[in-house]
Amino acid sequence: MNSTLAKLQPYPFERLAALKKGCVPPADKEHIALSIGEPKHPTPHFINEAIISHLHGLASYPLTRGSDDLRAAIANWLNQRFQLDNVPANPDCHVLPVTGTREALFAFAQCVVDSHNVDVTPAVLMPNPFYQIYEGAALLAGADTVFINCTAATGMLPDFDSVTEADWQRCQLLYICSPGNPTGAIIDEATLSQLLTLADKHGFIIASDECYSEIYFDEKQPPIGLLQVAANLGRTDFSRCVVFHSLSKRSNAPGLRSGFVAGDSEVIKQFLKYRTYHGCAMPPATQAASIAAWKDEKHVLHNRDLYREKFSAVIDVLKDVIEVDAPQAAFYLWLKTPLSDTDFARDLFTQQNVTVLPGSYLSRDTVSGNPGANYVRMALVAPIDECIEAAHRIKQFIENL
Question: Quick check: is 48 in a domain?
Answer without folding.
Answer: no
